Amino acid sequence: EWAAAGYVVLMYVARGWWESEGEVTAAGPLEVDDARRVLDTVETRAADWHADPSRIATAGVSYGGGLAVLTAAADSRVTAAVSLSGWGNINRALAGQGAPNLFWYEVLKLSGSPWVGMGRLSKSVSPHFRAILAGNRSEEVVGWCRTRSPEAHLQDLCGGGRATPVLLSNNAEDRLFAPDAALLYRQALHGAGCRVETMIHEGIHAMAELPGMLGFSDAVATSSPLWSRVLAFLDANLKPGAAPPPPPPARSGVLVQAGEWGARTSRRLNKTSIDTCSLCTGTS
Q1: DSSP per residue, 55-69
Q2: CA 49, 55, 56, 61 torsion: positive or negative?
Q3: What is the pLDDT of residues 251-274, one digit of tens each?
Q4: What is the pTM of this model?
């Protein structure tokens, strides 16, 4: 489908996950450097692949979503970023409002244990996670969090005339990267000058993305057609002369969208119309 839409897609597995070499350092500098080497490959092979290296987007789900935006902030070759079920602030995810997210800490730690087979977590990660849960605000812990939090790289992503377009999509019942945190993330990006489109879907972590990842049509999803919306976002930002993506149809169920395409938009939340810009910014 992506090829038929005119895209060259290069997918890779981040270090430390599955069969990829190295260890997981929680989207740290090593992971970002790896992603930038992937961009080097795109540039090197652009002629063979008939790709335009001046129009590159990064996209990912969950861990990949956070890494997609961090990579965009670190490398100006990225002209748009898509974060699906990702995070903006790692401290907010693990200890938002001072409440330790102990369940997801255990899940993350388990996913990186060798005997589960999903990934190999670096020994340096768990102590930092525990420090966050304990409310440790030492300079070292804060610096570790900032490096891995897209919200700490707003100037690189949105400043200097870049104003990188970002699509954020999170899920209403996600207890790891919660929807309120996603709206704060959107507010930070928008306030820094990035163009942001935000969607909140039904489901738990990565649930709205799952049908498309398994190869099913968006029609299978219980919320807004996510993947077709991602494609529309990329078309609008990577294809010359493309118009902004049209708003999705209003429907019942949980759907919040805040788009910055020159007009304020209202969407429907459980059949009650709300102004999503007011919801995100706290203004009337």
Answers
A1: SEEEEEETHHHHHHH
A2: negative
A3: 433 345 444 333 333 343 333 222
A4: 0.84
